[in-house]
Amino acid sequence: MRIVTWNVNSIGARLERVLAWLELHQPDVLALQELKCTDAAFPLMEIQALGYEVATWGTGRWNGVALLSKVGLADITIGLTDQPEYEGALEPRAIGATCNGVRVWSVYVPNGREPDHDHYAYKLEWFAALQATVDAEMKASPALPLAIIGDFNVAPTDEDVWDIAKFENSTHVTPAERTALTNLQSIGLVDHMPRALKGAPYTFWDYRQAAFGRGWGMRIDLVYANAPFDAAITDCWIDREERKGKGASDHAPVVIDLTGAP
DNA sequence: ATGCCCTATGATATAGGA
Asked: Which of A11, A30, A112, A255 has a 20 to 30 Å separation from A18 between CA atoms?
């Protein structure tokens, strides 16, 4: 079974690329982030035509997450338990579902903006809610393969950014953000390192300053897998080819192949 | 070398991204 996570930076702007990518790589499950559209505006017909069931949570201009599956889409959960709000709004940043006996969470963790910004505190609170939600699920179903996949907006180590010196006083690399990741590890999730097809294992390159061509990337799209999920992984890789050319998302898909049917 | 930003919106600037 092939499961993929991809921050598409607008499903509307990316639709032709997403459809072509689905046809080429045939994932069974695709977790999307940054839809930037409402549920009503999601291109349902085009995706369903390729054989996918779809669950979305999008409210418009920003954020938005979805799960696409060819192998069943059961027990859909919209949002986290006690998910914190930002400026009075419950943002569409997490959606979970069970696909062919595998529990998948598609997450778009808040950016944080600046370490002294309210959004940064919100980011840490959001991580705590994510952990509590998934911890409860894993305790209820310890044998069920489960993974949180998506845009975590944290680079786990200094090796996961092109130049740590450029990140002084920046989010994504602070001790508190990295502690949020190690806290997830403490409840039994493994940061599964993908295989880089070329160069460093980055998943994001900024649009600005020709960052992709210069290799100025970050690994922030992550696979946090419980033991049953991690044991089933046969391959995991970053499709940096998809970052090339005009009309690419600033994030590359991360592909996870698992043993077992289908 | 896949290259000097991209996206959506009560738009003709602005907010957000990371």
From this structure: A112
Residues 158-217 of A with CB within 7 A of strand B: 171-172, 204, 206-210, 212-214
Token match 């946090």: residue?
A224
Mean pLDDT over each residue of chain A, to the nearest integer: 97
- Please tell me which residue lies nearest to nucleotide B16, judged from CA to C1': A62
What radius of gyration, in Å, describes the C-alpha atoms of chain A? 17
pLDDT value of residue A201: 96
Calculate the angstrom distance between C1' of B2 and CA of A142.
Answer: 44
Return d(Cα A18, Cα A25) in angstroms, integer.
10
Strand B footprint nucleotides (protein C-beta < 7 Å): 1-9, 16-18
Beta-bridge partners for A146: A103
Q: What is the pLDDT of residues A142-166, one digit of tens each?
A: 999 999 999 999 999 999 999 999 9
Q: For chain A, which residues score pLDDT lower than 50? A: none
Q: Which pLDDT value is given to residue A262?
A: 66
**Nearest in space to A96 (alpha carbons), one of A65, A127, A125, A123:** A65
Q: pTM of the entire structure?
A: 0.97
pLDDT of residue A66: 98
A72 contact to strand B (CB, 7 A limit): no
Q: Could you tell me the CA-to-CA distances from A58 to A203, A219, A220, A238 in Å, in that order?
A: 23, 25, 21, 25
In the numeric block, which tokens belong to residue A54?
Answer: 């779809």
Q: Which CATH architecture has domain A2-258?
A: 4-Layer Sandwich (3.60)
Structure tokens at A70: 């060819």
A109: left (phi over 0), alpha (psi -120 to 50) or beta: beta
**Which nucleotide across the nucleic acid strands is nearest to A36, CA versus C1'?**
B8
